[in-house]
Amino acid sequence: MSGWLKRAVVSALPDPVVRPLREVKRGVLLQVERHGRLQRRINRRIVVDGLPRRRRRVGSVWAVCLAKNEEDIIVHSTRHMLDQGVDGVIVVDNGSTDRTGSLLAGLALEDARVHAGVDAEPGFFQGMKTSYLAHLAWRAGADWVVPFDADEFWYAPGTTVAALLARLPDTDRVWAHLWNAYPLAEDGMLDLASGRPVQVDRRPTAWMKIAFRARRWVWVGEGNHDLRSRGSRPQRALDLLHFSCRSLDQYSRKALDGVAALHEAGMDESIATHWREWAMLTDGERAARWSTYVSGEASDLSGTSGPAERVVVPDPMRWPSWDPGQLLDDGA
């Protein structure tokens, strides 16, 4: 059937007929991807030794993470996940040139819940890699999976992340609101071990992050914002602080590393435009934008935004649960 004839036939069919057919096609394409050459290559290049093999443990929560050159924060975010009651953390190092790999190895020796591994695939492919880590967590007995970035600190209102998820027996997936956090202007850079206050946007961003019920395979979308497979609409249940901008040097390095990985993966230029645009700036332009950003004169690093609306909060590393001082507008 020619392309125009196929389109004509499809357009003539009622939506209740077309929608199920599209869902079937989508499901077939996802299964083809799961068993395809690229996903199998990614799976082979991720190695995590010593993981248990066991049946699902009801209420068991595991966290999974991909890390590259995150030596200033990866120990803090991993320990934070442990403090939030998770039963296991799988975190893999993607060719870091700093101490990230050795720090993760040390954490694994310190706490048996930490399973440090290696990701030898240089391409970005965040969604496909996270999908495989979620499979490993399921295989280890997880009931829930929380995919977190190295610069994310997840919280639940009034309790721990693990305790909240464990009491949602009929829920398949939940969203976490994302709140950007920054160093104080007078500090210029963030040291999470210092106990210093930080700035946090008064309201969350429009972006959400996803946590989901473990199963043999899930298709995680790029950025961990949602699952690519259809399902019930996630309910909002969690919040997270996002420390993506900790110093000028750190953010510039992250953006350049990210652009290189995107290029290696052949990703479309519509993905991570903020990294691509930052990589094109001169050192002077980056410094100027950083200064206006941490001072609050600009609400983002684009150079075109208006003033920020932020709140100074006491050291959030001491928070047992989300925003105990109720300083932020929860966006409800």
From TrEMBL:
<dbReference type="GO" id="GO:0016740">
    <property type="term" value="F:transferase activity"/>
</dbReference>
<protein>
    <submittedName>
        <fullName>Glycosyl transferase family 2</fullName>
    </submittedName>
</protein>
<keyword id="KW-0808">Transferase</keyword>
<feature type="region of interest" description="Disordered">
    <location>
        <begin position="297"/>
        <end position="316"/>
    </location>
</feature>
<dbReference type="Pfam" id="PF13704">
    <property type="entry name" value="Glyco_tranf_2_4"/>
</dbReference>
<dbReference type="InterPro" id="IPR029044">
    <property type="entry name" value="Nucleotide-diphossugar_trans"/>
</dbReference>
